Recover the amino acids of this structure.
C-alpha cells in the first residue's frame, strides 16, 4: 500500500543506495510522499563532499568512510554545504582539518538535552542485509552481547538498529515512538500494543525513561472510541497521534475528519482532558505535487483549516502539528518553494499555521520539525532558514518542537548538527522580522531541542539528570570507544530521476 502511483514507485530506489555522506546527498522520503529527484545543487554537493572527504581522509591516513563517521567528517560535510549553498551553517575549515578541535566541540555539546518526539522503526519489509552485519559491532559495544552469537534476520534488527541509531549514534536523550493509521487495520506496522511494548523494552534496558509512546487513533472508524478507552485502561500513552486525512497512503480513504468537528471529536477531547493526556499530535501536510487532482475532496484535511476553532475551544489541550503542515511543492522542489517565499514572504500552509496565534488569540499550537527540516536542509538550506524564521516568528521559539522523523533519514545526528549550526541570514532577518537562532546551545536552540518538549511531557530536571548515569549512557560510552560508528545510511526512498 502506498499513496504513490505505480509509475512513481517505478522511479524509486532504497535510500540505502545513496553515497553515505554524513548529510544525505539527496532528498529522502517515506512512502507518505514522493521523493524529489536529485537537484543540480545536490549533485554539486555530492561531488564536493566526496572530494573533500577523500582529501581529508588521505591526510589523516584513514578511509573516507571512517573519516565521515567522525566529528571532523561531519564538519567537512557542512563546509561542503556552505560552499554549495552559501554560508548558512556555522563551521570553520580548522574544525574540519583538526580532529581534536572537532572532537572538543562535539564533546562539549554531547550533553545537550535533546528530546526527539517524532521517531519510527525502520520501514517494514526492508531486506538490506547491511544491518545484519552491524550486530557484531553492537555486541562489541557491550550493550547487548548476545547479538554476537545469535544469527538474526533483518526483522530482528529493526528494533535493535533503532536503539543504535537514535541513542548511540546521536546525542538524542529521549525519544517518542510513533505509528500511523490505515483504513484497513491489517496494514498497521506498529499497533498501539507494539508501541507500548517498544517503550517498555527501551526503558527497561536503560533503567530510566528514555522513550515515550503514542496511541494512534482513527476517528470515525467503527469502534475508535473503544480503542481510546482500551489504551487508557491498559497502557496510557504519553500523547495521542492522529491523521486528519484518515489513511495517509490511500486517496480513497473513507475516514478523513476535522479536528473541530464537535459531534465526532469533542467527546474524545473531554476524555483526554479528564485523563490528563493533553498532547494531541496531528499529521498535516506532505501532499503530492498533483494533490488537487489525485486527492480530490480529501486534500483539504491536510491543511490548517480546522485549527483556529479547536484551539480556541480547547485551550487546555496542546495541538502539536506534525510536519508543521508543510505542503511540499511540485516535484518536491525546495527551489520553487524558496522562489515563492522570496516573491510572497510565505511558505504554503506553514505560514497559515504560524499566523493562527496572532489572528485568533490562541497559545496552544505547536509546530513539529519532522521531515520538513531534513527535506529542506538537504535541498535548499535557505528555505530551511526561512521555515525556522516563519515558525518562530508566528508560534514563538517556545512552541517549536524538535522531531526528526528518524529513522527515515538515518541516525538523527546530522539533523541535530544542522540546527546547531544553522543561522538565518542577516538580510532575511531584516526583511522579514526574523530573530537570530543564536548559539548551538543558546536559549532558542535549547528550547527547540528539548526544553519545549520537556515542558509538554512533564520531564522534570531530576529525571533528565538521571539519564547521565543510566545503562544507555554506559553503553554509549563503550560504543563511542569500541563501536563501529554511524553507518550514515538513510532508510526511506530516493528518486532515481535527475
Amino acid at each position: 500500500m502506498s499513496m504513490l502511483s505505480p509509475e512513481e514507485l517505478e522511479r524509486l530506489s532504497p535510500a540505502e543506495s545513496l553515497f553515505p555522506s554524513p548529510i544525505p546527498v539527496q532528498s529522502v522520503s517515506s512512502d507518505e510522499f514522493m521523493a524529489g529527484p536529485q537537484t543540480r545543487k545536490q549533485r554539486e554537493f555530492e561531488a564536493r563532499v566526496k572530494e573533500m572527504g577523500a582529501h581529508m581522509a588521505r591526510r589523516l591516513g584513514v578511509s573516507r568512510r571512517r573519516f565521515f563517521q567522525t566529528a571532523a567528517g561531519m564538519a567537512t560535510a557542512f563546509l561542503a554545504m556552505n560552499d554549495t549553498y552559501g554560508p548558512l551553517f556555522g563551521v570553520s575549515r580548522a574544525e574540519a582539518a583538526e580532529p581534536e578541535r572537532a572532537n572538543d566541540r562535539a564533546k562539549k555539546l554531547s550533553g545537550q538535552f535533546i528530546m526527539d518526539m517524532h521517531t519510527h522503526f525502520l520501514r517494514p519489509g526492508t531486506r538490506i542485509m547491511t544491518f545484519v552485519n552491524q550486530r557484531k559491532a553492537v555486541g562489541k559495544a557491550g550493550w547487548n552481547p548476545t547479538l554476537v552469537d545469535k544469527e538474526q534476520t533483518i526483522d530482528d534488527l529493526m528494533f535493535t538498529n533503532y536503539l543504535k541509531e537514535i541513542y548511540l549514534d546521536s546525542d538524542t536523550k529521549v525519544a517518542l515512538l510513533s505509528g500511523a493509521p490505515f483504513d484497513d487495520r491489517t496494514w498497521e506496522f506498529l499497533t498501539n500494543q507494539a508501541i507500548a511494548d517498544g517503550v517498555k523494552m527501551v526503558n527497561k534496558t536503560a533503567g530510566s525513561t528514555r522513550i515515550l509512546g503514542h496511541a494512534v487513533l482513527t476517528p470515525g472508524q467503527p469502534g475508535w472510541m473503544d480503542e481510546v478507552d482500551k489504551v487508557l485502561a491498559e497502557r496510557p500513552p504519553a500523547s495521542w497521534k492522529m491523521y486528519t486525512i484518515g489513511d495517509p497512503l490511500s486517496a480513497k480513504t473513507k475516514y478523513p475528519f476535522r479536528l473541530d468537528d464537535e459531534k465526532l471529536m469533542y467527546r474524545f477531547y473531554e476524555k483526554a482532558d479528564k485523563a490528563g493526556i493533553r498532547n494531541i499530535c496531528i499529521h498535516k501536510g506532505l501532499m503530492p505535487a498533483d494533490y488537487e487532482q489525485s486527492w480530490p475532496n480529501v486534500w483539504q484535511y491536510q491543511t490548517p483549516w480546522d485549527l483556529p476553532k479547536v484551539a480556541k475551544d480547547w485551550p487546555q489541550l496542546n495541538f502539536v502539528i506534525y510536519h508543521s503542515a508543510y505542503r511540499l511543492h511540485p516535484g518536491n522542489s525546495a527551489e520553487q518553494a524558496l522562489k515563492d517565499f522570496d516573491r510572497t514572504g510565505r511558505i504554503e500552509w506553514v505560514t497559515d499555521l504560524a499566523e493562527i496565534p496572532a489572528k485568533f488569540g490562541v497559545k496552544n499550537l505547536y509546530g513539529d520539525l519532522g521531515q520538513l527540516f531534513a527535506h529542506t536542509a538537504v535541498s535548499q538550506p535557505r528555505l530551511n532558514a526561512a521555515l525556522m524564521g516563519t515558525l518562530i516568528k508566528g508560534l514563538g521559539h517556545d512552541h517549536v518542537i524538535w522531531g526528526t522523523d528518524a529513522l527515515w533519514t538515518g541516525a538523527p545526528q546530522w539533523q541535530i548538527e544542522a540546527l546547531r549550526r544553522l543561522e538565518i541570514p542577516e538580510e532575511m532577518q531584516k526583511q522579514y522580522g526574523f530573530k537570530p537562532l543564536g548559539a548551538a546551545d543558546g536559549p532558542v536552540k535549547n528550547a527547540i531541542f528539548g526544553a519545549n518538549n520537556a515542558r509538554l511531557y512533564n520531564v522534570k530536571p531530576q529525571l533528565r539528570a538521571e539519564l547521565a548515569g543510566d545503562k544507555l549512557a554506559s553503553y554509549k560510552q563503550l560504543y563511542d570507544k569500541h563501536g563501529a560508528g554511524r553507518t550514515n545510511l538513510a532508510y526511506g526512498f530516493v528518486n532515481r530521476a535527475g
